[in-house]
Amino acid sequence: TRVLTARDLADAETTTSADRSDDGDRNDSERHGETRRSYRTKAIHVKNCRDGAYTLDASLRVAKVFVENCENVVVTVRCLVITQTLEIWNCADVSLRFDEPVATVQADSCRDCALIFKKRDHLGAVVHATCEGSLFVRWPKETNVVNENEPKTYSKNPSTESSMTSIDLVANERATQPAFGPVTLSKSGVHETPQFITRLIDSVPTTERVIRDKDEYPTTAREMLLDRADLAAAGDADAKKAIERNEPIELDTSFARAEKRRVLGNVSFKNGDYAQAVVHYTSCLQLDSNNHVAYANRSACFLKLGEHERALADAQRCVKIEPGFVKGRFRIGLALHALGRFAEAAAALAEAETLDPKNAQIKDALKMAAFKARQKGTMGGS
What we know:
alpha/beta; Serine Threonine Protein Phosphatase 5, Tetratricopeptide repeat; 3 domains; eight-stranded mixed β-sheet; seven-stranded mixed β-sheet; 12 helices; 21 strands; elongated; CAP/MinC_C; Hsp90 protein binding; actin binding; repeat; TPR_rpt
């Protein structure tokens, strides 16, 4: 067992810059499975460790703790973690033991790991995703707790865990609706990895599916129902109707989030920040790949930025999804015109004019493209 103390960190502060080089630090970690720390933030990073035990002594004060790519390791956290946040990922057969309460543990892509607390009330929130095998949360059984109030216990070997309350969060994920899976296909056609949160709800450990609302804020269906009730009590008509109709909470928020991102793109475009608008429209399309308006709007950005080939590609994607969308046809014409393909531009703009015969911008662009096409023809295509 290696015990890391405040003296260790103080000694580390006095090491030379050569000793702190990124390459040397990384190579040493890879060879020996050392406990690493960030000198500026005093974050502890336990990485690439195998078959060992590490203790963060009570004398330490650290900002955060990271455990990455470890196997058959026990990490005991006795110190104050200022942010009360710990992250563990890509680990197998790792146990984390906490002497103090922890607000948030983030566990991703772990297999057969355990989070062990001194008592039930020390459990804050465990946010978990893509874990396999088991992910246990454990604490000593409380003798003053009535049996029927004990949370359900899952254990591979109950006889060895008789003194501990053990809850398998991976098993809880499978029991959570909608159907469990490493990757779930949303209605928008975009793959999003399910994420879950386990915490004490009325003193009972409860696992819930994390939902991102339109503002990207992480919440749950239960919390959204409570928010709806609060809105209805405050006089919100839509919330009242939803309650009267017993409308379910929409778990797939990809369309609403995509629309919010598209609106942010519109704001950036109006402000003349076309590059930022591209970022917003692209993030919209990551959630809703069939959003023809976002393609048309991003095409307009590329036209402003002088990226005419990309503008043409986006406009073509737009009309492939929605052939009757006039802005898509219009921007195909503008992109072709900018590329010097005047005859093709005139043909595309003529199609746009058919869809919106009273649009003055289309008429002017068509006249110019037709003129340029005739001029180019008269000059022998030079």
